[in-house]
Amino acid sequence: MNQLLIDPVFMTQSSPPSEPNSTYALEQLRAFLTTSGLGQGSRLPTERQLAEKFQVGRRALRRALDALEAEGVLWRRQGAGTFVGMREDDATPDVLMQVTDFNEIMEVRLRIEPQLAQLAALRARPEEITRMRALTKRLAESEDADSRELWDGTLHRLIAQSARNRLFLSLFDIVNRIRQDEAWRAMREQARRIAKSRAQTAMQHHDIVEAIAARDPVAAGEAMREHLLLMHETLIRQTSMIGTLHTPSPDQPEPQPLQQGTAI
Questions:
Q1: 19, 188, 226, 261: which has the fewest C-beta neighbours closer than 10 Å?
Q2: Is the pLDDT of residue 110 over 70?
Q3: Residue 11 has what pLDDT?
Q4: Separation CA 220–CA 127 (nearest Å)
Q5: Where exactly does CATH 1.10.10.10 map onto the chain?
Q6: Beta-carbon count within 10 A of 168 CB
Q7: Which of 148, 154, 224, 240 is nearest to 186 (CA)?
Q8: Residues of CATH 1.20.120.530 domain(s) within the chain?
Q9: What pTM, to 2 d.p., does this model score?
């Protein structure tokens, strides 16, 4: 009896069917995840890019993604993308850095940091105020972006720490870790350079610290609010110029900048 000989290599390779289906898309996705080197939490290319790469329809690709998500191989977040591995807690800074835009960061800062400045005006110790003044001077004298970011972050955290509220400080630290992401750091520095706002920022830091030193919570909160509004508006102008403003998902309206009269 003649036996049908099957090449084992042929059995392990998949060529596109005449009409690529979900099973073929799933095979291609598995192969891509194996060879791409993407680690836990890495973002996959967009659905459009993957569909073009594998030469499959978007419907077949989505079904394949559904299957891998059900297996725990990847997870998806609407408006943010598809990520490798098990879904992480959406509140962790590592995840938030990937899904948060600068409008969201600034909106949160505008709602917690003026209150932190107010509490610091009531609770900061004399030695903390002395350190704030020294940091303000050091920040104003900084000549490079790295040192400006370092001393700016140190000053703002000292103000938060001086408020003597551990829950507030924890919230501040989450936001601060997100804003220290390299992409956000570069965006802020470019915004400062384009707006030529360093001198104004230095004066605002001085006003914040002196209001805290004067034990004037109203002035301290207002000075902090004006300082953050300046950065927010500068970032909006910059991203409008270079076309990098975050594009929301279809079900997410475009965030609007906060105005001077916005209640905090």
A1: 261
A2: yes
A3: 37
A4: 18
A5: 18-27+36-84
A6: 17
A7: 148
A8: 93-242
A9: 0.58
